[in-house]
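Quick bug: Ribosome maturation factor RimP output formatted oddly.
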Amino acid sequence: MTTPIIDRISSLLEPVTSSLGLDLDEVELVGKAERRRLLIAVDRDGGVGIDQVAEATRAISAALDESDVMGESPYTLEVASRGVDRPLVSPRHWRRNAGRVVAVELVDGERFEARIRASDDAGVDLAIQGEVTRFPYDEIVKAVVQIELNRKDV
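Here's what came back:
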């Protein structure tokens, strides 16, 4: 659920991140008064490195300083890559994680782990114990990439 302030921040920052070749993946404002933290997650095909995060931080900070969207109260800005622990919520997340194992929960409550084979704007093909099954995104409640320490290229 977004709030009006998150929508305003997102509208301000979307062109900034886009101009850097990044997707504005998530905006979160936590805390109150002087302890507010503005958390910005960015992503792109091929991943985001420290240099891209630093460049994005400078550009985002400048855009926020030039606007009144954050008001007069102080805040801490944190810009980071999306990270693997965040749920897959858009088709681009699925596409960027092709070949990885995900923990999936469906609307009917079923839970399983599967490997992402392919995806498009409508759904994803998941390999479950070698059998590939198509799932429309609206059937998936939650999906999170699982860390594989000894990942085999598949």
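Actually, after a second look the formatting is fine. The chain has a mean pLDDT of 94. Closing.
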